[in-house]
Fold NurA domain-containing protein.
Amino acid sequence: MSILIERAYEEFANNYPKILEKIRFYSNSINDSVKDKLKKIWIDYEPTAVNKSFIAIDGGEFVKELRVGTVFLTNAEAVYGEGVNVSAIDNEIKMGVFRPGNLAKERISEIMSILELSLALRNGNKAEYILMDGSLKKKLNNGKDVEGEEKELDEIINDENEEESLKNLILKSQILISRLIQNYDGKILWISKNSKGRELFGENISDITVIESLTENPGFTLPFVHTIDEKILAKNKEVKNLEGVEISSFYIRLEKGQRVLKVDLTGRIDDEGIKKIMDSLYSVSIKGYPYPLLKVHYDVKVNKEDRQRILSILGLNHMRGNSWWPNQFF
């Protein structure tokens, strides 16, 4: 153990009472500032399982930055779930190399999003609900100053102009989201387990953290309605359909003591509609989380062994990359 780490442990031990006191203070201050509002918008509800069919979609990525460029692999999968039976039904994968630049990770993230949205469009008619991992707002990204017509994904990936490539990826994502909402409005649930949204309470911590700290029972918050901001939309005929689209967002807990999830869906929804969604999700809940989303998450995850194998196949496992040197030097 280094001298620095030893000193850090010593400082922690010496300041333990003060740290504990501050944790209690922050917890109490959260309670005082938001408990009245939470009482007004949180409704305890014990869901009853109602069997429904689900398509769940998620994506994964592997990025290796080298001095000579960035190697990437992105994948996405769609699974069909009904009750305890969940199986993969479709998938997409893209692999390539970007020349050295500053927008590789952003482009790779958009490619993954496009693969997910493509699977949702292709398979959305096979179930009663479509479960998308993450928030709708994050998927939309920011299309300000972006305009044009849709291009094929491979053409965009092979564009040497990284700024134009990223713009066209965002444009394509927004076009696919527009088509998805046009085709399946009301049956797409965008589910976030790590939302950092603070719209409800305006605290320095996320709404999810507030709700998890102050409640334990299953239940939900009243929905808050917002519209897609046209300022973030690209200039395109299909994307224009997203202008003014209403999004209902609400938080749910499916099982006592388990995590709180944020749900987005297009259109308006009332309390009874939220209860129906909770009943449906509860039928596939594992410790408060929809099992189809959990299954697909682990399917697309590129683990350490997979990464090493990919690098070995490409002969890159001994090539020096950015990871060999502290990140702050880059």
